[in-house]
Specification:
By secondary structure, the chain is an alpha/beta fold. It has one domain: 3-Layer(aba) Sandwich (Beta-carbonic Anhydrase, Chain A). About 35% of the residues lie in helices and about 15% in strands. It has a 6-stranded mixed beta sheet with strand order 2-1-3-4-5-6. The longest helix has 27 residues. It is globular, with a radius of gyration of 20 Å. The N and C termini lie far apart (about 50 Å). The protein binds zinc ion (ZN). Zinc ion binds next to helix 4.
Length: about 250
């Protein structure tokens, strides 16, 4: 039986790699210095390098179901204080955020959801009982769920609400919060519409997603420093009082 995957690996090594060898050797010699942390859904149709026109060394990527950001504080809470607190954090994504900010010193953090997201759709469905980790993980998007019938339109709104929710959770990471406050880090909420091939970026001032072709920026995030009075209608400074306007 021919192993197609093995053939692809060999093709990369023989045909593709020689053309980019120099670039990779430089990245090994100088180390990686990506300026963007890309938090995206695992969906196979979301291809970060294609969307952003980036190549090796430019994106530090962490992907998961739904493009969710776990809370910074992963300690279990027992309201009766009968059980000792234990660490139940979702380490993978949180660790990547901490590494990207504290060690790589990224200046942009992108949260990228997308249309027809199975993770968001699953928020409205029963999860297979064997998928215990998936069921727990989906709780991270629960707040975005709308109390209405599932339609294509409501799913799209949920996908976008989930992106903004994750931006909020990013601000729960002290190193992110400090970076944003100091103007060293900007947050970008994106919603990629697969069938149109277009990213809609979140505008923190209007509280809306704007098609990249109509936008004057790549997403401002809900916590951009206040530049004009209209910003107050959307969020209140750097506190956690962001108002959904979607
Ligand atoms: Zn998805």
């Amino acid at each position: 039986m021919s192993d197609e995957l093995l053939q692809r690996l060999r093709r990369f090594h023989i045909d593709t790699f020689p053309g980019v060898q120099e670039q990779f050797r430089n990245l090994v010699r100088d180390g990686q210095h990506p300026s963007i942390l890309f938090i995206g859904c695992s969906d196979s149709r979301l291809v970060p390098y294609l969307l952003t026109g980036t190549g090796p060394g430019e994106l530090f990527i962490v992907r998961n179901v739904g493009a969710f950001v776990p809370p910074y504080d992963g300690w279990s809470e027992d309201p009766d204080l009968k059980k000792p607190r234990r660490w139940v954090g979702y380490h993978g994504t949180s660790a990547a955020i901490e590494f990207a900010v504290l060690y790589l010193k990224v200046s942009r953090i992108v949260v990228c959801g997308h249309s027809h997201c199975g993770g968001i759709r699953a928020l409205y469905d029963k999860v297979n009982p064997q998928a215990r980790n998936l069921a727990a993980w989906l709780d991270l998007g629960r707040e975005a769920v709308l109390p209405e019938a599932v339609t294509a339109e409501s799913l799209r709104r949920t996908e976008r609400r989930a992106v903004v929710l994750q931006l909020e959770k990013l601000m729960g990471y002290p190193m992110v919060r400090e970076g944003v406050k100091a103007g060293r880090i900007t947050l970008h909420g994106w919603h990629y519409v697969i069938e149109d091939g277009e990213v809609h970026v979140f505008d923190g001032h209007s509280g809306e997603f704007v098609a990249a072709s109509d936008s004057t920026h790549s997403g401002t995030g809900p916590y951009h420093p206040i530049e004009d009075s209209t910003a107050h209608a959307v969020f209140n400074g750097f506190d956690d009082s962001y108002i959904f306007v979607i």
